[in-house]
């Protein structure tokens, strides 16, 4: 079990006196109070890096905090530990004979799951376990009519990458509020391919990580495919067999791992009826790796396609199907491309790793993973300007919460107006 300190809860008799110490004397910042009516408690949170102190004030004489204060006086009330899998944590404690207050996890604030461990098991301290809310609700596939075609936002689950690498030269002090890292410094990311459903057929842009990753890598990348692309396609009445064309933005595993699958021990195309349309120079780079990009290009993701004879190559930027155009950006990889879906005067843009999450809409927030960051920066500066002026609907492939939205600017500040 991996656990990190979420917060320390301190029961206070007199809030003003407590604030005189924690806020005024120590100089800590206090957030607006959160009231939990059912528990008869008001919590004043003082954030401290990735954890916090909570000053707990009773709002009712019969509340658990009031009873604690009457019995023990002011002082340490509980510590809360954040765990990834609360059911497994409770099971492990039960197996060790630890006395639990809650046999099962129950819903806590903000969509989290919580459970209390009895103080007798923890040497006199009440311990709360907390599994933070997963943005599972944000992974619901959605269909959107876009002129002559339909756009279907799907997903292949969640994963995590090092926060520092995701934000390049931006210091953690700036990015951690946008993307809180876990105890291994990973930030939560989604994989969101996009299906273009049109009269000429169905095209999928990128296809997630797929199911071939070995356990060690699954652990490193916190790969969570409990709900994955097959589920997402089924939710919108589709299946892998319904896809005619697979169009990768580049061949990294988190974008193209889902292109192949293992059946009876052999690697085969995942989309059995589909052709795979790949930029020739990207294929060349993926098959001629160097020390900097070798971990991202996994031969099992693309070589079996060539053996099956299902790959079509192209050289230049072009319209690949009516309303669907690819544009090379370079930057992330030498041949990384974005996909524009243009219909009836409107443009939707699948920007892949040019702007992986909504946090990356700032020009200089460029990934450390990028092979040519200055190329990313130059393309991004030009493109975002164009996207704001042209009201492009942007699909954020890796954002855990927002599938698509409009980039807008007000008083010199950029923000995303989320649509999906
Ligand atoms: Zn990526």
Overview of the structural elements:
It contains eleven helices and 26 strands. 39% of the residues are buried. The protein has two domains: 3-131, Roll (2,3-Dihydroxybiphenyl 1,2-Dioxygenase, domain 1), CATH 3.10.180; 135-418, Ribonuclease Z/Hydroxyacylglutathione hydrolase-like (Metallo-beta-lactamase, Chain A). The protein is elongated. It is of the alpha+beta class. A hairpin with an 8-residue loop joins strand 24 (393-395) and strand 25 (404-410). It binds zinc ion (ZN). Zinc ion is lined by residues 252, 254-255, 353, 356, 398.
- Small molecules held by this entry: zinc ion
Q: How many helical elements?
A: 11
CATH class of the largest domain: Alpha Beta
Corresponding CATH superfamily of the largest domain:
Ribonuclease Z/Hydroxyacylglutathione hydrolase-like
Structure summary, number of beta strands? 26
Second-tier CATH architecture of the largest domain: 4-Layer Sandwich
Task: Let me know the largest β-sheet.
Answer: 8 strands, mixed
Ends distance: 34 Å
Q: What share of residues is helical? A: 10-25%
The stretches of 5 or more residues where confidence is low (pLDDT under 50) are none
Rg over CA atoms: 25 Å
Domain count, please report it: 2
Strand order of the largest sheet: 2-3-4-1-5-8-7-6
CATH overall fold name of the largest domain: Metallo-beta-lactamase, Chain A
Tertiary shape: elongated
Give the helix/strand class.
alpha+beta
Beta-strand fraction estimate? 25-35%
Mean pLDDT reading = 93
């Amino acid at each position: 079990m991996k656990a990190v300190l979420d917060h320390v809860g301190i029961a206070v008799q007199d809030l003003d006196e407590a604030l005189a110490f924690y806020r005024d004397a120590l100089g800590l910042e206090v957030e607006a109070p959160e009231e939990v009516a059912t528990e008869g408690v008001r919590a004043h949170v003082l954030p401290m890096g990735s954890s916090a102190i909570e000053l707990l004030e009773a709002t009712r004489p019969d509340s658990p905090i009031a009873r604690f204060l009457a019995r023990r006086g002011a002082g340490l009330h509980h510590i809360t530990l954040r765990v990834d899998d609360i059911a497994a944590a409770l099971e492990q404690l039960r197996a060790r004979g630890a006395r639990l207050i809650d046999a099962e996890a129950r819903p806590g604030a903000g969509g989290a799951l919580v459970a209390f461990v009895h103080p007798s098991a923890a040497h006199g301290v009440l311990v709360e376990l907390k599994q933070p809310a997963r943005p599972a609700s944000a992974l619901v596939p959605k269909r959107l009519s876009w002129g002559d075609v339909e756009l279907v936002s799907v997903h292949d689950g969640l994963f995590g990458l090092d926060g520092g690498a995701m934000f390049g030269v931006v210091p953690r002090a700036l990015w951690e509020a946008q993307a809180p890292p876990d105890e291994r410094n990973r930030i939560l990311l989604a994989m969101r391919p996009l299906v273009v459903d049109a009269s000429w057929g169905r095209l999928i842009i990128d296809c997630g990580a797929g199911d071939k990753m070995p356990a060690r890598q699954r652990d490193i990348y916190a790969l969570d495919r409990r709900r994955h692309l097959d589920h997402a396609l089924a939710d919108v009445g589709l299946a892998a067999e319904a896809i005619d064309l697979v169009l990768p933005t580049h061949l990294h595993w988190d974008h193209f791992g889902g292109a192949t699958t293992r059946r009876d021990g052999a690697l085969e195309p995942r989309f059995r009826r589909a052709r795979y349309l790949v930029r020739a120079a990207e294929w060349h780079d993926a098959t001629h790796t160097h020390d900097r990009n070798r971990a991202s290009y996994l031969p099992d993701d693309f070589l079996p396609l060539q053996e099956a004879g299902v790959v079509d190559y192209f050289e230049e930027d072009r319209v690949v199907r009516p309303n669907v155009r690819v544009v090379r950006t370079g930057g992330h990889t030498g041949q990384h491309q974005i996909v524009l879906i243009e219909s009836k005067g409107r443009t939707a843009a699948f920007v892949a790793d040019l702007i992986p999450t909504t946090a990356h809409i700032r020009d200089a927030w460029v990934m450390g993973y990028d092979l040519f960051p200055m190329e990313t920066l130059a393309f991004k500066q030009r493109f975002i300007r164009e996207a704001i002026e042209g009201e492009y609907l942007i699909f954020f492939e890796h954002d855990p919460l927002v599938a698509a939205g409009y980039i807008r600017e007000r008083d010199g500040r950029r923000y995303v107006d989320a649509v999906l």
